[in-house]
Amino acid sequence: MKRTSEYGIMAEFDSATALVAAAHRVHEAGYKKVDAYSPFPVEGLAEAIGFHRDEVPLVVLIGGLIGGLSAYALQYWIANISYPINVGGKPLHSWPAFIVVTFEMTILFAGIAAVFGMLALNGLPMPYHPVFNVPRFAFATKDRFFLIVFSSDPQYNRAATRQLLEGLRPKSISEVPD
Amino acid sequence: MDEQIEQATAGDRAPVIEPGHTFATITDKISSIVLTRPTSTGWFIGFGLSFLLTMMLLYAIGYLFARGVGIWGINIPVGWGFAIVNFVWWIGIGHAGTLISAILLLLRQSWRNSINRFAEAMTLFAVSCAGLFPLLHMGRPWLFYWMFPYPNTMNYWPQFRSPLVWDVFAVSTYATISLLFWFIGLIPDFATLRDRAEGRPAKMIYGMLSMGWRGSARHWHRYETAYLLLAGLATPLVLSVHTVVSFDFAIAIVPGWHTTIFPPYFVAGAIYSGFAMVLMLAIPIRKFYGLEDFITERHLQNSAKVMLATGLIVAYGYGIEAFMGWYSGNRYDSFLLWNRLHGPYAFFYYMLLICNIAAPQVLWIRKLRTSPMWLFLVSGVILVGMWLERFIIVVVSLQRDFLNSSWGMYYPTRWDWMTYIGTIGLFLAAMFLFVRILPMISIFEMRTLLPEAEVKE
After folding, report:
1. Are A100 and B218 in contact (CB < 8 Å)?
2. Backbone dihedral angles phi then psi of residue A146, each to the nearest 5 degrees
3. Residues with Cβ within 8 Å of residue B140, at least 6 apart in sequence
4. Which of A149, A175, B87, B265 is least enclosed, having the fewest CB within 10 Å?
5. B149, B247, B453 member nearest A16 (Cβ)
6. Which helix (H) or strand (E) segment is A35 a member of?
7. What is the ipTM of this complex?
8. pLDDT in tens, A44-103
9. CA atoms within 13 A on the CB side of B330
10. From B225, which residue of chain A is nearest by alpha-carbon distance?
11. What structural domains does chain B harbor?
């Protein structure tokens, strides 16, 4: 990866519609290392910058399966092998009684997997990130929308990329220092 | 389709958010409560009083640890008493938060966006109060970890056929999932506060809590997926928790407990009392913090309608209980009905019918349903009624069961009352801290309610 003095070029927009349109244009121009920032989830924005693979559902499924299967296995092992107790002549493997805990543990593990899986896939927590060096970026959590082309993109060229972004009529343009 | 219905009914409905707001005004209005507005004298008085009640709770608990559960009014036959009444009451109240944040999210009820955050906080604090009671009731609360399956030198395992063990799993899962749901909802708002905060400590603290959230499109995509899946998981969970609580009763053979109507009727009662508590908190909050723009008449009305509907389900539950007492021909069940209507605690049963069935019927009247004062009063009455319901279920069933020789009476002591009122103090103190240091309305979800949030092709 080539090292340049800047991290990327960032353009600021004042509406979600403008951001999505700009993201489409930049993506169509062939840029791959692009990101967009918005103060709330914007429909279609992730697709516009070419993000399609969301692994969160898979992580949640795996979490839920681990939780449910291990809860049932634990109860089976306790009730049949480790600590068998005859209660009123009921079978040791009285599976209906084990469903509640199995259900609860499925939900618990799937929920934990959803939250921590989402954070891990997003690379959070990440206290420092170069985009925070742009003073105007503080408005990304209020009412402004940002699009960045990273300098690591093979097509990146300081002058040409800047020209492309300026053609999208942003509110401001700034270079993000590394 | 949805939009057509929306338009057709828009005429007679108050908006979810008052017109004239932008992304910036929403952000400023909600974050200023936490960051810039001076803390009012009223907040200090309210927090101070609830803090005193919390101290009273600690005193009652300290004395309980020194002397044991004998200081309470519990006895044989009534071994459950206030501890279980209050546990069920609090955990029921804790249901509204997850219902609002998860079920209404899946049903695309966007009005929930202004009330989900503090309803979730309410859930957490209510579940914390609820969790205290079974622990204190154990007699030897320092051995609470015996309820969890872990390898130990006694070669001993919990009995997984017991509903009391199910309860441990249900309540702890519910508390964990509610906390996670609340926390991931807060992450983008922590980032907003981080970028707005003036002082260095506030910047640092909110910065750490936001975990470096920067609103990237990829992050939002995964975030929304995780949030939606969590809502999907929390939906059966919220219905299961009170179902499992009701199993604690329904699986026993005590008359008045051993019925199949318990799970649905407990869940309906939980949502009923939960919405009552949401209204009792929302009405003063919107008034004192001037949030009428965000928590509008629409929210009050919708909550009132939910209370009315769940209240009718609860009334049906009472009806079926009485009907089965008569129709089953079982002498113990019919005696239970007689004991409720004419026994020593009959006064409380009639109060229960008045509070839970009669009083909420005023909500049929639109004028009262939209009046904050009336709603506040009715909600208070419902909360009392739901407490009485649990009192009737626990105490009246236990005090006179199959054998006359084992009958008895139950009288709560001052320690029972101090513990109960103390948890109300703890709950309120936590709510006061919450509204002061965290955004009580979800800022990013409010932004999505504006028409500008939609992308126009």
Report:
1. no
2. -125, 150
3. none
4. A175
5. B453
6. strand A34-37
7. 0.91
8. 888 888 888 888 999 999 999 999 999 999 999 999 999 898 888 889 998 999 999 999
9. 18
10. A56
11. 15-148+156-452 (1.20.1630.10)
Question: For the segment B378-403, what is each residue's pLDDT rounded down to a tens digit?
Answer: 999 999 999 999 999 999 999 998 88
Q: How many CA atoms lie within 13 A of B26 on its CB side?
A: 30
Q: In a mutagenesis test of the B interface, which of A31, A115, A128, A146 is the best target, namely the one with the most B β-carbons within 10 Å? A: A115
Q: Looking at residue A45, what is its pLDDT?
A: 87
A114: exposed, middle or buried (C-beta count within 10 Å: 0-12, 13-18, 19+)?
buried
In the β-sheet with A6-13, what is the strand arrangement from edge to edge? A34-37, A145-150, A6-13, A172-177
Q: Does B233 touch chain A (CB under 8 A)?
A: yes
Q: From first to last of the 457 residues of chain B, give the pLDDT tens digit.
A: 444 444 444 445 677 888 888 888 888 888 888 888 888 888 999 999 999 999 999 999 999 999 999 999 999 899 899 999 999 999 999 988 888 888 888 888 888 888 888 899 999 999 999 999 999 999 888 898 988 899 989 888 998 988 989 999 999 999 999 999 999 999 999 999 988 888 888 889 998 999 989 889 899 999 999 999 999 999 999 889 999 999 999 988 888 898 889 999 899 999 999 999 999 999 999 888 888 888 888 888 889 999 999 999 999 999 999 998 899 888 998 999 999 999 999 999 999 999 999 999 999 998 888 889 999 999 999 999 999 999 999 999 999 988 889 899 999 999 999 999 999 999 999 999 999 989 988 888 888 888 888 887 6
CA angle at residue B27 from A7 to A125, to 5 degrees? Answer: 45
User: Is the CB of residue B438 less than 8 Å from the CB of residue B34?
Assistant: yes
| Contacts A101 to B, Cβ<8 Å | 160, 165-166, 169
Give the one of B229, B452, B456 whose C-beta lies nearest to A114's C-beta. B229
Helix (H, G, I), strand (E, B) or coil at B245: helix
Q: Which two tokens stand for residue B249?
A: 């009763």
**Residue A109 predicted with pLDDT over 90:** yes
Inter-chain CB proximity A110 and B170 less than 8 Å: no
For an interface test with B, the pick among A35, A40, A47, A176 (most B C-beta atoms closer than 10 Å) comes out as: A40
Pairwise CB contact (< 8 Å): B240 & A78 = no
**B410's torsion region: left (phi>0), alpha (psi -120 to 50) or beta?**
beta
Specify the pLDDT at position B10.
Answer: 46
Q: How far is B15 from chain A (nearest CA, A)?
A: 21
The minimal CB distance from B226 to the residues A38, A97, A115 is found for A115
Residue B35, chain A, CB below 8 Å: the answer is: no
- Shortest alpha-carbon distance between residue B113 and chain A (Å): 13
What is the enclosing helix (H) or strand (E) of A13?
strand A6-13
